[in-house]
Amino acid sequence: MRAIFKDDHTRELPELQRERAYAAAFARLGVDYDYPTTPLGSLVQRERLSA
Known about the structure:
The protein has 51 residues and is mostly helical. It is built from 3 helices and no strands. The model has no long low-confidence stretch (mean pLDDT 75).
């Protein structure tokens, strides 16, 4: 797993693309990676739905 985070090509990518590359690398290993370092609160607006 260390190799995923220390890949020189990946480290040069913008933050969001880097997180997607990490997620893809972990997916190849069968591990779910949910973008823990990306502040998605600023990207995703959620609305409350009434049932």
